[in-house]
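Page 42, continued from yesterday. The earlier attempt failed because a stray header line got pasted into the input along with the sequence. Redoing it now with the clean sequence only.
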Amino acid sequence: MTVNSSSRFCVQVVTGILNLLFGVLSIGLIIWPILIGTEVFDIYDYNLFDLTAVIESPLLLIACGIMLGTGVIAMVVSILGCIGACVMNRLLLATISVVVIFIFLANFTGAILVAKYTGTDGPNFTETETASTYLQVNYNSSQRFASAFDKFQRQNGCCGFDSKKDFVNQPQNIIWPKSCCENEDDTKPVEECITFNTGCRSPLRDHLYQVSLITAASLVSVSTFELFLILSTVLLLRIKRKDENKLEEEESEDEESEEEEEVIGFYQ
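This time it went through. Structure tokens are written below.
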């Protein structure tokens, strides 16, 4: 095996391995938004996105959408990338490198959005009055929100956004939900039960901050990996181009030699 062929083989192997790892990472990009956005795996036992409605900015939701979309595309690209690295198809490798660049830009943009959403002190909540109004209006009108907020109150020992007073004057004459009671099995009327004294503002902020950090770190990590994959694919393309140019030169030299031999043979 010559030096050039050895180098080409090494780059092919590295590019193939990077594409396989890219496929594994793409699974993570798909799973994470599903974990925090649905109750399929019960990681948080509630739909986190339903709770983010008390935040002014939808940037976390947008970033998770980017993760999910790029994850699906990346899974397909990783399969094609492995094929391209094996067969050394120039068009396929070039197409993959361009697509990975777009995926990199999308993921990096998603990381910036999450960083902007999170800020330095955690997610920025709406005005207290606005958040309380949202809670009052939507708790009974949205079953999904009510279910998510009830579960969050139980798990964190809190009631309302700032206090149990956020539930006052709701439709259907409900003072506050049973999930605000320290002992939900108590047979006393809801208005007589011992309620949690603190609101859910602080634990919700901390929880969203934690999720945002994980999301941003995932996007940055995948973006960094994508840079190596782009470099590896471009290097493989350069090697392929050099091989093709060398082959063309050899064929041209062979044709010139044959022509010279024909000329010499003609005069002899």
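Notes: The helical segments are 3-37, 48-51, 59-87, 90-118, 128-141, 143-156, 201-267.
Reminder to self: strip header lines before submitting.
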